[in-house]
Design goal:
With about 180 residues, the chain is of the alpha+beta class. The protein is about 60% helix and about 15% strand.
């Protein structure tokens, strides 16, 4: 294993080699032959440097890989549980929000009902809603204007970002995700 001093010395030498290579003339056949021979020497130096690095890094990588494999049975079920529960919570929260929106639309013109309407807590305790970008799904391809016919996702997302709220044949919706609330 190389000491910090050895690594610093090699770094300086190799940076000097790099600077020299960038100034090598390659105009004549002799100059190109010299450069080709020098390239072979450099490849040998590179192999040696990579061997030095591997001597240090390989045991560390093997230890990391072994630890990862050893703890995978412990970690994987928890990762899957978190993913499943988060996805389920997001779906249930989205459903609750949609139901509240539908209820609000039904009573939109009834000022008395609107005054009594209570907005439900959308996010479970300890969580907050994080609004992501607006997404869309195709509901009637025959209504989509010609410029969107290949369903140009990048164009649609760009126009959504510019404030377009409606494109025939597409349904816009918010993809809601949960995140831990800030304390």
């Amino acid at each position: 294993m190389g000491s910090d001093k050895e690594i610093a010395k090699l770094t300086e030498e190799h940076n000097t080699i790099l600077a020299e290579c960038k100034t090598l003339p390659l105009d004549t056949a002799e100059q190109r032959d010299f450069a080709a021979t020098y390239l072979l020497e450099l490849r040998s130096l590179l192999d040696n440097a990579e061997g030095m690095r591997a001597a240090v890094a390989d045991p560390i990588y093997k230890a990391w890989k072994n630890a990862r494999e050893q703890y995978a049975p412990v970690i994987t079920p928890l990762q899957e549980a978190c993913t499943w529960l988060k996805t389920s919570l997001e779906a249930a929260t989205a459903k609750a929000l949609k139901q509240a929106e539908e209820e609000l639309e039904k009573i939109a013109h009834d000022t008395e009902a609107l005054a009594k309407f209570e907005v439900p807590d959308a996010a479970p305790k300890g969580m907050s809603l994080r609004s992501s970008r607006v997404k869309y799904r195709v509901v009637d391809e025959s209504l989509i204007p010609r410029k969107y016919l290949t369903v140009n996702h990048a164009l649609i997302q760009r126009e959504i970002g510019e404030g377009v709220e409606e494109i025939p044949g597409l349904e816009f919706y918010r993809d809601t995700q949960l995140q831990k609330a800030r304390s």
